[in-house]
Amino acid sequence: MRRRIRITSVAFVGLVMLLGSSFASSADDRSEILKVREAIWRAWFANDTKTLQKLVPPDAIVISAGEEKWKTQAEVFQSAAEFRTGGGELVRLAFPRTEIQRFGEVAIIWSTYLVETETNEKRSLASGRVTEIFVRRHGQWVNPGWHTDSTK
Question: Per residue in 71-116, pLDDT tens?
Fold first, then answer.
């Protein structure tokens, strides 16, 4: 009987330690995931292909608001280049509400966004919702897919 209690106690303490370390890393992971998300959005508007190649993998699938066709990584990079060559500049980027769900090496971010851009001295404001998928690959969070919608 004492042996059973001792084994149960050790198992319980191990479980508590495991859960505790899991929760501690979640706060750090949240910050890291949000930093990567911000880097991707800013890289797209700046046509920073080096950052995009590092954080948006070749198997990416993207569904954008108002567009019937889904995009691949190459098409995401092409649209970033077109935005910049068309004179586009990012003025403001904000995520007023963000929730993160974590499932092991996968995180799903649910957010509202606000983007203000300027093209040829004309400012535009866009807002909507975005669902983004992040996967930890080789120790790095990458973004293999997202879906945006827009609001008025």
Answer: 999 999 999 999 999 999 999 999 999 999 999 999 999 999 999 9
Contact 136/105 with Cβ under 8 angstroms?
yes
**Residue whose tokens read 């070749």:** 58
CA distances (Å), 140 to each of 32, 82, 93, 116, 131, in order? 9, 28, 23, 29, 19
What is the span of the domain harbouring residue 49? 30-151
| Residues 6+ positions from 52 with CB-CB distance below 8 Å | 40, 43, 44, 76, 77, 80
Number of Cβ within a 10 Å radius of residue 16:
10
Which amino acid is located at 104 in the chain? G
* Residue 49, in any domain of the structure: yes
Q: Is the pTM of this model over 0.90?
A: no
Residue 23 lies in a domain: no
Query: Could you tell me if 94 and 111 are in contact, meaning their C-beta atoms sit under 8 angstroms apart?
Result: no
| Pairing relationship of beta strands 61-63 and 140-151 according to DSSP bridges | parallel
8 within a domain of the structure (yes/no): no
DSSP code for 131: E
Structural domain includes residue 61 = yes
Number of separate domains in the chain: 1
- Residue 41, number of CB atoms within 10 A of its CB: 18
